[in-house]
Amino acid sequence: MIEIEDLRFSYDEGDFFLEIPKLKVAHGETVAIVGPSGSGKTTLLNLIAGTAVPQSGQVTTNGYEISGLHDAARRDFRIANIGLVFQEFELLEYLNVLDNILLPYRINRTLHLGTAVRERAEALAKRVGISDKLTRFVNQLSQGEKQRVAVIRALVMQPPLLLADEPTGNLDPLNKNRVLDILLQYAEQNGATVITVTHDYDILSRFRRVIDFKDFYTHGAEQRPENIAGPM
Ligand code: ADP
Ligand code: MG
To answer: pTM for this structure?
Structure first.
C-alpha cells in the first residue's frame, strides 16, 4: 500500500529534516506510529497523503508515485484514496453534523452525493451512536461526539487508506475505544490500511504493527523541552 524510498524532507523554514531510507506498509495492515512531539509524525502522514512533497526520494501510495504527481493530480489522488482524521477534528461549525459528514461530497466535484451515500452516512452515524444528533451544529457536541463525526467523515467515501493523526488524543477511555473500534473494524471489513499517529501507549496492542520514529533520522526536534522531560 505504501512504499517510501530514500526520502529526504525539510520545510522551507526551520532546521527540521526527516530521512527515511525505506518504509513499507502492506495492504490491510494496521499501523501505529509513535515518537516524540515534533519528531515529524504529522509530516510523515502529510508525505503519505501528498499534502507535503519530499525534496528527494519516492513516496508510492496505493500504486501511485505521489511524490512525482502535479498538485491537481495529487489532490485527485487524495480524494479518491485517503480518509483523513485530524487531531483537531477540522469540523465546520456553520454546518450541522450530517453536512459535516457529507463534506467530502460537497467540495469534490468528482464525487457524487446520491441516496446510497446519504444512507451510508446515516448507517455509520447509527453505529457510533450519534444518529440522534445529525441535525445539530458541531459546537453543540461533546469532544467524543466530535471525534466520531470526524472519523465517519473519513470513512464515508470508503477509502482504501485511512490516516489518523492522534485520533484518540482528546478522548476519555470509553470514547477512545469506540473510535478505535470503528477504525479497526472498518479496516477489517474492507481490507483497508490504517495508519494512526498516537501518543497513547495503552492502545498500541490493538495495532498489528508499531513504527517508532526513533528508528528514523530526524533533526530539529531534539532540543525541544518536552522531549528532554520524558519519553513522549
Ligand atoms: P509531530 O507530529 O511528530 O509532533 P510535526 O511533523 O508536526 O511533528 O513537526 C515536525 C517538525 O517540523 C517540528 O519541529 C515542527 O516545528 C516543524 N514544522 C512543522 N510544520 C512546519 C512548517 N509548515 N514549516 C516549518 N516547520 C514545520
Ligand atoms: Mg503531530
So the answer is: 0.88
